[in-house]
Amino acid sequence: MATATGGGLEFHPMDQFVVRPLFGDGAVAWYTPTNVTLWLFLTALAAIAVLVLGTRGRAIVPNRAQSVAELAYGLVYKMIEDIAGKDGLRYFPYVLTLFMFIVFANLLGLVPMAFTVTSHIAVTGILAMAVFLGVTIIGFVKNGAHFLDLFWIRSAPLAVRPILAVIEVISYFVRPLSLSIRLAGNMIAGHAVIKVFAGFAAIAAVAPVAIIAVVGMYAFEVLVAFVQAYVFTILTCVYLKDALHPSH
Amino acid sequence: MISLLQGAATTAAETTEAPGAGDEIVIITESATHGAETHSVYGDAAHSAAEGAGLPQLDITTFGNQIFWLVVTLVVLYLVLSRVALPRIAAVLSDRQGAMTGDLMAAEEFKQRAREAEAAYDKALAEARGEAQRIVAANRAEIQAELNNAIARADAEIAARTAESETRIREIRATAETDAREVAQEVTAALVAAFGGNADNAAVTAAVDSRMKGAMQ
Questions:
Q1: If contacts are CB pairs under 8 Å, which of residues 82-111 in chain A contact chain B?
Q2: In the predicted model, is pLDDT for residue A173 greater than 60?
Q3: Are B44 and A32 a contacting pair at CB < 8 A?
Q4: What is the ipTM for the molecules in this complex?
Q5: pLDDT over 90, % of chain B
Q6: DSSP letters of A113-174?
Q7: Is the pLDDT of residue A92 over 60?
Q8: If you average pLDDT over every residue of chain B, what do you get?
Q9: Contact across the interface for A196 and B25, Cβ inside 8 Å
Q10: A40 vs B: CB within 8 A
Q11: Could you tell me the CA-to-CA distances from B80 to A79, A130, B66, B90, B210 in Å, in that order?
Q12: How confident is the model at residue A204 (pLDDT cuts 50, 70, 90)?
């Protein structure tokens, strides 16, 4: 948000990410309902509206809302089936929850004046850690010690294997970091850029360019919102595949 | 990425300083840098600034809050989706699949039935044709048999008549020979008598027989 105070321009591209209590002006305790709470709930409601209300008709020939719900269902279902295989479908509800949550959080964040929950490293970090821990636990429960084959690449020459193992271990533990920072970073960057361009709209001389740039960025961000949710989900499926079939 | 953005924003701000004609451009990314004069407008920003400077994302004091509400949201969303939405969509999809396969199978069945009907029609046609041919053949055979019968009967009659005629001819020929012999004997006896001879019956008969033997052969 930019305000021209006393003839000066002030840019606050990061103010949109500030966590504030919804009621009053006190400190933010762990239970305080904040703007994060509000937009998390709106995200969940949007996902539920599409998947539950949209399929209310249970029609053989679907209407538009039901088609969207079935499309989302089919997209994630096929993704898991293709990447993680048939036994990955047990975890389909969680992966779909993840996808629906991220895609709606990203898209709702693009509503003017909205708060983008996925722009916060705390949120994406928990999402990524949930995937990382879940996948690791599944890997050990399903395969026991054989899960460690993931790091010991038998197709490589014996001399190279320890080096590869070190690299594999590092890349394994970097996964939650890259997952969370990729998502939050994309969201922060896009929204901040839009805010900066919007700030320039206060100067009459560059206003048309700024507004066109905002429109362009906005369209791009809609794409990014979907693509990032897709990437997060597809990587979750890849990690799930590693957990279920570590020897591949 | 964030620092890059800030850099871009700063450069953009600097380049627009000329049209701004002396406007004061301040880029605020750290809430701590702006204090009392913006406090009324950005009270909340200043408030968070009091707790931790820098990006709002890195303000660790809000992490507990965010994580708590995120977990609540995710659990609710997971429960609603896994209990209500997914079974419903799965049921709809399988119903549709079932309806489609059912329709396809019904169509296949109808096709099969049509094929069977055609086969039955062809068979009936072939049977009718065979029946007709059999009837024609039977009729023909019957007529042939009757004809053969009639011909045989006619032949038999002809043969009988021929035999009868031959008997009659033979009889006539036999009577004619006898008659001729008698006439010849009588004529011979009369001639011998007329010439004054005494006709010996046995001699006349022998003479006629010897003459007749030559004539009859």
A1: 92-94, 96-97, 100-101
A2: yes
A3: no
A4: 0.89
A5: 49
A6: T---GGG-HHHHHHHHHHHHHHHHHHHHHHHGGGGGGGTS-TTS-TTTHHHHHHHHHHHHHH
A7: yes
A8: 79
A9: no
A10: yes
A11: 21, 19, 21, 14, 149
A12: confident
